[in-house]
Design brief:
The protein has 7 helices and 9 strands; from the N terminus they run αβαββαβαβαβαβββα. The chain is of the alpha/beta class and 250 residues long. The protein has a single domain, classed as Glycosidases (TIM Barrel), CATH 3.20.20.80. β8 and β9 form a beta hairpin. It holds the Pfam family Glyco_hydro_25. Its main location: secreted. This is N,O-diacetylmuramidase.
Amino acid sequence: MKYLVSLALALAVAGATPVKHAHPRGIDVSSYQPNVDWTTVKNNGIEFAYIKATEGTSYISPTFNSQHASAKKVGLIHGGYHFAHPNVSTGATQAKYFLAHGGAWSGDGVTLPGALDIEYNPSGPKCYGLSAPAMVSWIKDFSNTYKAATGRYPVIYTTTDWWKDCTGNSATFGSTNPLWIAHYASTIGTLPAGWKDTSFWQYAHSGPNPGNANLWNGDMAGLKRYTFFYLARRNTLITTLVLNSLAHGS
């Protein structure tokens, strides 16, 4: 398997048909990756990309517009994400800020619903000084505001450890919001309460492509359907990532 993946990627770099995988692979990028060669990314077999749009209520990624347009141009399924700062404003305020600066969703068959990146505070208390009930309320405020504007609930990006610590392992969102779990290991591991499976898995913080490496929990047909509506259950479930087979893929 490792040999076949390596051979396929070598052909792609040489300009052959882009690599295809059973589980579509993706990347997420931000202004930390300002010069993405999107054609090479596409030829490496990447099928989707999440791109940072906003953070809090005072930051708009200076690379979002160009990254978004370039990902779309090469044919990647794409969407924006918002890095939350629950300590600076309400969830509704940040959802509106995100929507106004790249986070909107449209059922055009190529746009992913916006993602709420809710995780460890990079510059202060882990849970932003909020109690677990207050954090759940904040996420609900963001989620409901986004849903009212777009008709879709946002994807929730998080880690299981943070979710347990900062929401009390709330099961509130499992039936409404798709999950994008970050877990850098050979298996997905335990999911936050409420979710039976995950839509996306961020399995590595680096690889042969820019940004973080991700997998979609299903096949390409399922990913395309997902751009139109949320599938509560996908037709396949990732449980184990064979790292050797991914040694030269993302």
